[in-house]
Specification:
The protein is α+β, with helices and mostly antiparallel strands. The protein is built from four helices and 14 strands.
């Protein structure tokens, strides 16, 4: 994903919300391990002391391959919930059942290809959930995480009541095993973030989930992005009304 698409995604978010007040900001790295790692470093460089990162690698806390509707972070990052399970895919293969929820996986326990750990051996897998809800711990205004294999063309994020399609954010026709770094900021404090998969048998993995407090981005930059978002939103509405 190029820089223009990243700025556009942020702008659409600000345009869809009111940029006169507090509004969440979404940022997506370019595709690839190097670009995603650089984005994580940039995000962490802005984080104040006291941030928390969940790598899912504590095998004394997590049982790899065990499923649960809600998985709570071992370090206090928050909760991850399978709100709407998937069906009919590899999450119903071997010892797994889509209806049993999310799972911490590693390469030997995973029935999927294209999803993998960023650090250590484990990651949190959606197990093809059609909706996964991330409920971050209170007291933080930002969150960042890796997402691997988000190749469901009908997928979307829902943040602060605003939906962003995977197709618009990541681009269409994603190959297997792609990786991005996603970061969010909300001056009012983070609320729940939902990740939807349109297809019942497609999913993704997430890893290195960080919650932090960061300094608010510059007002002029937010205003510019908000105006860009309004322009993009009006353009899309105009096309739909033709």
């Amino acid at each position: 994903m190029n820089t223009l698409k990243t700025v556009g995604a942020i702008g659409v978010l600000l345009g869809a919300c009111t940029w006169a007040g507090a509004a969440p900001i979404l940022n997506i790295s370019s595709q690839g391990a190097a670009a995603a790692a650089a984005a994580e470093l940039d995000f962490l460089s802005t984080a104040h002391s006291g941030y928390l990162t969940e790598t899912f690698d504590d095998n004394t806390f997590y049982t790899v391959g065990s499923q649960a509707s809600t998985i709570t972070s071992s370090v206090g990052v928050g909760d991850f919930t399978s709100a709407v399970p998937g069906s009919g895919g590899l999450c119903d293969s071997g010892p797994y059942n889509c209806n049993d929820g999310l799972a911490v996986l590693n390469a030997s326990a995973s029935p999927f290809s294209g999803r993998y750990a960023i650090s250590g051996n484990n990651w949190l897998d959606s197990m093809d959930a059609r909706q996964m809800v991330i409920s971050p711990a209170a007291g933080f205004n930002s969150m960042g995480f890796y997402i691997t294999d988000p190749n469901d063309a009908g997928g979307r994020f829902s943040i602060g009541g605003v939906d962003f399609s995977f197709n618009d954010i990541f681009g269409s026709a994603l190959g297997n095993g792609r990786v991005y770094y996603v970061s969010l900021y909300d001056a009012a404090g983070l609320g729940d973030v939902s990740i939807f998969s349109n297809n019942p048998d497609d999913g993704y993995g997430i890893d290195n989930v960080t919650v932090a407090n960061v300094t608010e981005p510059g007002t002029l930059a937010l205003l510019a992005l908000g105006l860009l978002g309004i322009g993009l939103s009006l353009s899309r509405k105009s096309k739909r009304n033709r």
